Structure formats: structure tokens, C-alpha cells
Amino acid sequence: MTTKTTLTFESGVGTATGANFLLESEAGKNLIDCGLVQGSQFAEEINKDDFPYDASSIKNLFVTHAHADHIGRIPKLVRAGFRGTIYSTPATKHLAAVMLSDILVQIRREAGSQKVEPIFNNEDIDKALELWKEIPYHEPTTIGDFVVTLRDAGHILGSTMFEFVKNGKKIVFTGDLGNSPTPLLPDTETITDADYMVMESVYGDRNHEPKSERREKLKRVINDTIKRGGTIVIPAFSLERTQVILYELNNLIENKEIQSIPVFLDSPLAIKVTSVYKSFSASFNKAVQQEQSEGDNIFEFPGLKFVRTTEESRGIVRHAGSKIIIAGSGMSTGGRVIHHEREFLNDPQSTILIVGYQVAGSLGRELQDGAKSVQIEGKDISVKAKIETILGYSSHKDSDHLIEFVGNTAKTLKCVWVAMGEPKSSLFLTQRLRDYLGVNAVYPKVGETVVLDM
Ligand SMILES: [Zn+2]
């Protein structure tokens, strides 16, 4: 007998951020993700709005992974009265503990001198972590009237898709899908038997540069800069991208493909995240497991220095000769990387190496677009350093691979909702899914509720 099951797109459609979906059945209300809406600000004003549902009526919250746009409003949900259970992989819980504290710091920084109350505080974070339970991948668990199974999404450490099965029907929430194969993580698992799917579409309208070229390009950029005697500044996101770059440097240095020069990881957040990665080293892909079993500690190599204090950070410039500085933020919108860019942007020997997506309006995007001069903290700085971009390290599937992923379950799929992307990207992917696979692909509206046959 089928009872009524509904799905509501509370937010996270028509935007790549703010993931928040409500799956409701007779046994109660479940949320999938509860992320921050992010745009030109780290946290947009809209995050202050009340939730469109009564937070105390939510029984369970399922968290796909520890990025701010998937976890950033969880403490606010707790503050609004949520007392249910939060479920994620063990790694996601550990990463979320680190990330949520940083999210609060960022929100406070944006509030600045205005005496505005942040949307949550440290107590709310602690309460959220108390409500948090870990479920490993691949262990079917009965929660309410669903059997829930986690499948590796291959996006960042701990990232999962959630499969909910009821009355023999399956709905899958993809969260973000990894750009497999990636240097560190296992590949995204294949889904072949979904009836319904809610999927991401960050790169729904674009393909990445080939992955085979990323490591060679990294090597070339570093070697060219060393030849000129310059410094390589890498603005990097603290979660996943930094660890991937460290892993690549570890191999390039140990294989003597680049000279052993000092590598400064200048980000307290990235250092904390890296230590979580170290403690979950059994979760990496087979190739990395093999290297580890041969005794290679992939986050330790000659020349690597962890820079914790601001004083140490400011001292880096005094290290003569070539060096690599990895610092946040990933789009050069703030953080310690700004000081290094101020130092090295007008040095023709040096390189700013961009390894991630740069949003329009960010300093990183200006540099990527070839600006001859930029403003940093009110000062005009002429850009003489080389600006290089490697986009092969993206942690999202591109358009062709999103199609391929859905294609594996095209036969059983009754409907796929295309979410978590900018409108242009989601609409393009929706059309491609219809044209290439003949599946019922839908671009949902914010707040729309659909009834599922399960
Ligand atoms: Zn993500």
C-alpha cells in the first residue's frame, strides 16, 4: 500500500547554493541539507529569513557533505527549534565541526561593526553536533518509513548521495557530484535503479579542461616560476582543493619532478581540515591507499610548513628565493592570500596560480580576466606577475559527465529534478537530459511541492 510522500524544494533551486529539500511521508518530515545561500557575500541577507517550515516539526536532517552551502544554516535550524537527528558520514561530521566554526567567523566578519546578531552562535553549533549521528557508506538503515543507504559522491571527503527506499521505490539526492577520477577520492558510485532523483547542476552548461593535463600544467607552472626565481601564490579553498594540491606537490617533489622548495600552507582552517583528512586516510582511493601502505605520508614532504599565526604569515616574505604559498580565500575575496598577492602581484618573476572557479566580481576573477591593475585594500597594484589558471581540479562533474551519470539510470527514472545550479546552467542541463536521454527532466520552482509515487 502506498502512502503519501511529497518533496518540496525549499531552496537550492535556481542557485548553486542554499541546498534545502523537504521529503515528507506519513512517518514525518525529513530535510536533505540545510545550506547557506551565498553570492557576492559569504552569507547573503536572505539567510536571516525564517525557514518556510516549523523547524521543531522536522524529525531528521540528512547532510550530503560539509560545504557551507550544504551545512551553513544547520545551527540556525537548531536555534529555530529543531531537535531531531542529523545524519551524515563520519568524515562529514568531523569536517562540519571545523567548518561551522569558520562559517560563524565569516558571518561575524561580514556583520562587521554593525551591531547585528549573527544567525547563530557557538552554542547552536555545539547543540547541532550533539544531535549528529554517523552512518557509514553502504549500510542500509531504517529511519522512519524509509530505508536509507549512503553512496559515495566522490566530491569531497565524506561526501555522499542519499538513497531513500519506500514501497520498493527509490529517490536519490545526489548532493554535489565529484569530478571523478580525482587525485584523492574514490569515484562517484553508479546509480542504476532510481525512480526519482534530485541532482546538482553547477556545471550543467560547461565542460572542464581534460583532467590528464592538470598535473602536467601544475608541474610546468611551478618549474617555470622556479627558473625565474619567483614565488608561486596559490589561492585555494581550505576544504578538498588544498589537500589535493598538497598531495600533487608531495608526489611531484618526491618524484623529483619539481625542485624541493619551501611550501607554506598559510591557513589555520586548511591546516585543521588537513588533519581531518589525515585521520580519514582509509577513505582515499586505491592508488592513494597503495602509496600510504608503502609508507608515504601524503600530507608530509620535505619543505612543507604549516603557518598558524599571523606573525609567521607575515614573515613568509622574508624567505628569499622560490617558494610556494597556499592560502585562502580561494577567490581572493579575503583571508591571508590578499597579503601575499599585494606582495607578489607586481613581481614579474612570480606567479599567481588559480586552481578553482572564480565568481564574477571577485579579485580572483579580475586577475583571471587579465586586469592590468587591481585594488587591494584601497591601494592600486599593477599586475606584473604571471597569472595562470588550472581548472582541471574542479570538484564538480561537468555537463557531459552529469549526463553520463543520469544515463546509467535512465531506464528506471520517472523524474529527475535539476537543482543546485545557476538558472542558465540548470536549464541547459534540463534540456540536454531530455534531448540526449529522453528522461523526464524538470527544473523546479522554489517552494514547489511534488507528490511522489512511493
Ligand atoms: Zn560541495
Written description of the protein model:
This protein has about 450 residues and is α/β, with parallel strands linked by helices. The chain has 2 domains: about 5-205 and about 395-450, Ribonuclease Z/Hydroxyacylglutathione hydrolase-like (Metallo-beta-lactamase, Chain A, 4-Layer Sandwich), CATH 3.60.15; about 210-390, Rossmann fold, CATH 3.40.50.10890. The protein is about 30% helix and about 20% strand. It contains 13 helices and 22 strands. It has helices at about 70, 75-80, 90-110, 120-130, 210-230, 240-255, 270-280, 285-295, 310-315, 335-345, 365-370, 400-405, 425-435; strands at about 5-10, 20-25, 30, 60, 85-90, 130-135, 140-145, 145-150, 160-165, 170-175, 195-200, 230-235, 265, 305, 325, 350-355, 375, 380, 385-390, 415-420, 440, 450. Strands 6-5-4-3-2-1-22 form a 7-stranded mixed β-sheet. It has a 7-stranded mixed β-sheet with strand order 7-8-9-10-11-20-21, with helices on one face. A 6-stranded parallel β-sheet has the order 14-13-15-12-16-19. A hairpin with a 7-residue loop joins strand 8 and strand 9 (about 160-165). It starts with a strand and ends with a strand. The mean pLDDT is about 95. The protein binds zinc ion.
